[in-house]
Amino acid sequence: MALTLIFTLAEEVYGLEIGAVQEIIEDPSLHYVPLAKGVLTGAINFHGQVLAVIDLPALLGFVGAGHDHRHVVLTPEFRSLVLMVSGIEKIIELDLSGLQPTPANTESKAIRGVVDLDDMMVNLLDTDEVFNRLENIYAGIK
Questions:
Q1: Of 61, 73, 65, nearest in space to 20 by CA
Q2: CATH number for the domain including 33?
C-alpha cells in the first residue's frame, strides 16, 4: 500500500505517489517567462526558489482540459516542477502490488501502469516520461 495523490487530467483519473509530492499550493502568483510557450505556462516563487509551471494536461494531449486552482509541487528528487492538473481529488492508500501494464492505446499519456480502484482505473503518472517530453520540447531553446 502506498499513499497516492489522486487527480484528474480532463476526464481521466491519475495517481502520483505522495513521496513525489512536496506540496499542493493554491492560486500561486504565476510570473511570465520570456520566450516561454506551449506547456511552460510561467514560473512561481516557491519558498525562495523559482520553479517552472507545466500545463500537464496540454503536455499529455488533453486539449481544452480545464485547470484546478491548486497546483502540485514535485520534490527535488522529481525535478521540482510545478504541475497544473485538471482537478485534485484526494490522497488515498493505493495497493500498487496490483499494478497492471499500460494499455496499448495510452502510450502517449505518460502512464507507468494502471491500478483498479473501486470500479475505476487509476493511471500512475510516469514523472520520468513527463520530464523527457519537456526536455525534447525545450532542448533547442537557448
A1: 73
A2: 2.40.50.180
